């Protein structure tokens, strides 16, 4: 499939104008609101989510299972390493291939535990600007390179980048291509895709189980009553985003912001984040004990892949 | 494909049966219930890459995250057999608003009559394939909250990756990664 322009989500020209009016400057990147028409992604890399939250009610909090997860910066480095090897491989076949720049559309969380927003929003400064939204709706990824059919075949070992794509012949223009193309070769060299579910599944489970803990029930109930006193009916911080549906492409109005600030103030008053985190930490320490071997294997695999990526990129980790 | 109906699905879902007409848009399904689209009209669609005016695909949006009703029998190796939604970009709430035209509710495509066809994707999906250059993070609660799961870019597009949740049906928002 060809991507001939910077791909954009469903964006009204009006949304672009709203961005301009709001003076939107997400994550400190220079504001450059889209005023309609296809635009390349803004110059300069946006700020990446920190491995440990640096502000707000979740500041400094790290759950035990996070030691077995891959932080954002490492996922980007691994992709960049694969890209670099892929470019060299494509060159061998006579193609000038450049992967799109990575890390240009960072999510709000560094790893699966999503500490900054795990129990709903926790950053008052962010809430004051964007409510429950992220302030990054003008940001889109750099376009994928345009590839000919032959390039696609050499890159991926398939005839298209699409579900159900058929495999390309083993030889293109008389030359043998690697299995799964240059991409396959590069992935094998840096490290095959890692199944992170041992840590991720447990992390999901601990959040689920913690919601039945009496301390969590008590503090969530207190938060809900605090919200109710301000006029908001909501049972749990995990449902709070529904109080302010996104009907204007991620733009928060004053009411949205007031809702978000109330949410965070109620969390501060009830000590919700610290309590919930304490309960979960205990659950996770138990999970780690019970799954030590598998988790350590995962951690070692991630470390090996990152080390390999750093070597390709010529960086000392 | 009777076997598709017996694919792993441990927990009973609360299935919402939606009667949708399949439109002629290539590969995607969109229906707006009620007359003129206005702020509270729910618009059921299997992809955000559809022009609001139903003129056809928005050429600047190209689906690269396929979310499946079923799980894959071999995560990362085989495709999931259910119906899929063709997603793209950051979505705050899979059953929430997207813009001022109406409240978008993302559903699995009705084309092909696969398991889950026409049902909401929110809290009802089991696997996904980030088919393209972009990576994604799927969040288990709307507004990018709760537990999340990373889906690294996959340009081979021949497999789906199962969700962490043992309930295999919690998902509410997504973001590029």
Specify the helix fraction band of chain B: under 10%
Largest inter-chain contact set: A-B, 76 and 61 residues
Distance between the termini of chain B: 35 Å
Shape of chain A: elongated
| DSSP strand tally of chain A | 2
Strands ordered across the widest β-sheet of chain A: 1-2
* Helix/strand structural class of chain B: mainly beta
Largest sheet of chain B: 4 strands, mixed
Beta fraction of chain A: under 5%
Please give the number of β-strands of chain B.
Answer: 11
Oligomeric state of this protein? heterodimer
Would you list the SSEs of chain B in sequence order as H and E? EEEEEEEEEEE
Average per-residue pLDDT of chain B, rounded, comes to: 76
Predict the CATH topology of chain B: Gamma-B Crystallin, domain 1
CATH architectural group of chain B: Sandwich
Write the layout of secondary structure elements.
The complex is a heterodimer of chains A (317) and B (177).
Chain A: H1 13-22, H2 72-92, H3 124-130, H4 149-156, E1 171-172, E2 175-176, H5 181-190, H6 197-210, H7 214-229, H8 254-270, H9 272-290, H10 292-313
Antiparallel strand pairs in A: 1-2
Helix pairs in contact in A: 2-5, 2-10, 3-8, 4-5, 6-9, 7-8, 7-9
Chain B: E1 30-32, E2 42-45, E3 65-68, E4 84-87, E5 97-99, E6 102-106, E7 127-129, E8 136-141, E9 145-151, E10 161-162, E11 173-176
